[in-house]
Amino acid sequence: MAKVVSVSKSHKHVFSKETVKSIMLIQGEGVEGDAHQGKTVQHRSRVRANPTQPNLRQVHLIHHELFDELYADGFTVEPGSLGENITTQGLELLSLPKGTILTFPSGAQIAITGLRNPCSQIEHFQNGLFDAVLSRDNSGRLVRKAGVMAIVLTAGQVNSEDDIAVTFPEQPFEPLRVV
């Protein structure tokens, strides 16, 4: 069963976010009190490129299974460490199609918009981590493992230990791309 392991936020543009008991999702904006909350892009490099583009990166999710994989490779990564707002378990985030809706017990809903492209700050967090969250599949294509991004469809609270209901979009499914 898919569930929330942890939730995090930070009102500052910092790499890691503070783990909290719950977060409030604001429709069309993101996590209340988080530096990336807003209708338009809030990520600093994207603001420099075009501050009027819509914010498709309102909520960042990472699967806890990635932390287990990184730990086995000698890294120490905990929920919130990589800047995610929601750490999940039992949900193959990277395999979800674009537009998949995740619903939480409060009624809050988010829609997956795409993959997170790891930035160079990850290397400053722990040496070698950048390469560890990137790999190549059997065909040689680059695989990004640093989580997915989403927008908030319906406001509501998300708590650690919440169950997550998954609703897939209509087929044909559109694969996730970097947003």
Automatic annotation (TrEMBL):
<dbReference type="GO" id="GO:0030170">
    <property type="term" value="F:pyridoxal phosphate binding"/>
</dbReference>
<protein>
    <recommendedName>
        <fullName>MOSC domain-containing protein</fullName>
    </recommendedName>
</protein>
<dbReference type="GO" id="GO:0003824">
    <property type="term" value="F:catalytic activity"/>
</dbReference>
<dbReference type="InterPro" id="IPR011037">
    <property type="entry name" value="Pyrv_Knase-like_insert_dom_sf"/>
</dbReference>
<dbReference type="InterPro" id="IPR005302">
    <property type="entry name" value="MoCF_Sase_C"/>
</dbReference>
<dbReference type="GO" id="GO:0030151">
    <property type="term" value="F:molybdenum ion binding"/>
</dbReference>
<dbReference type="InterPro" id="IPR052716">
    <property type="entry name" value="MOSC_domain"/>
</dbReference>
<feature type="domain" description="MOSC">
    <location>
        <begin position="18"/>
        <end position="167"/>
    </location>
</feature>
<dbReference type="Pfam" id="PF03473">
    <property type="entry name" value="MOSC"/>
</dbReference>
